[in-house]
Design brief:
By secondary structure, the protein is mainly beta. It is globular and about 45 Å long. Keywords: Signal.
């Protein structure tokens, strides 16, 4: 019995604080907010997470803010005729009851515009999510390696998209 208790305690200490983290707000669970490390001089970064609605009524993510950027927006990447395009999600993102919405590379994602400094691997960057019904929740984005993905292989990676040279409208600078 004592041996089992010691093994359980040891197993708990092996859980890394850098592993997935989550936040709860009413019926919503926000899973593992993360971002990729950015190179020096980068003015934009991306944010990724999941939002699960365990309630019986829909809610909507209506705003995002980040202490490390001038502004934060919700975007979606679409591919039309082989060309990837980003568009802002001005009306936010609905999270229906019993569903999980995923913000990931190549799909819905957060854009951090006007970075105050590069995002460095291993850091935690403070942000805030605002929901229409549930209200506001403070989160920390775990900064992971540049090019990292929440899955071993992700078919919808943002390869070929140059976020570093796009302004907030999604247009390449200088166009």
């Amino acid at each position: 019995m004592i041996y089992a208790a010691i093994l359980s305690a040891c197993a708990l200490t092996l859980v890394s604080p850098a592993s997935a983290h989550e936040y709860k707000l009413g019926d919503l669970t926000i899973g593992h907010p993360w971002s990729r490390a950015t190179p020096p001089g980068a003015k934009v970064g991306g944010g990724f997470l999941t939002i699960e609605n365990k309630g019986s009524t829909p809610d909507r993510l209506v705003a995002v803010s980040a202490s490390f950027a001038q502004k934060a927006e919700m975007h979606e990447t679409l591919t039309e005729d082989g060309v990837s395009k980003m568009r802002p999600l001005k009306d936010g993102v609905e999270v229906k009851p019993g569903e999980t919405v995923t913000f990931e590379p190549g799909g819905k994602h957060l854009m951090f515009i006007g970075l105050a400094a590069p995002l460095k691997q291993g850091d935690r960057a403070k942000g805030e999510l605002t929901f229409e019904k549930a209200g506001k929740v403070d989160v920390e984005f775990a900064v992971e390696a540049a090019g990292s993905s929440p899955k071993k292989q992700m078919d919808g990676d943002m390869k070929g998209m140059d976020h570093g040279s796009m302004d907030h409208s999604g247009m390449k600078q200088g166009q």
